[in-house]
Amino acid sequence: MRRQAAALADWPGFGDRLAGLDKDVLLVVGQEDTVTPPDQSLALAGAIPGSWLVRFRNAGHWLMFQYPQSLARVVEAFLEGHQ
User: Fold this and answer.
1) Is the pTM for the entire model greater than 0.85?
2) DSSP H or E run through 52
C-alpha cells in the first residue's frame, strides 16, 4: 500500500485533459471514503462539463457493497438519461 500511495503521489495526473471529454460521465463517491476523498470527486465534477456527481452518505470506498440497490438505481437513471 505504501508503494501504491507513493506511485499516486508521483503521478502527474490528467486534470488538464478533463474539460475535453466528449462522453457522459458519472462520478460516484462515498462521503466517508478514506481511499478516494470525496473532495477529489467534487473537483473532478467541476472539471468535467456536464458530469453527474452522486455522493452516498455513510458510505466508504466499497459503497457498491454497502448500498448495491441504491447504486444500481443511480447507474440505471444515468444510463437511461444518456441513451
Assistant:
1) no
2) strand 52-56
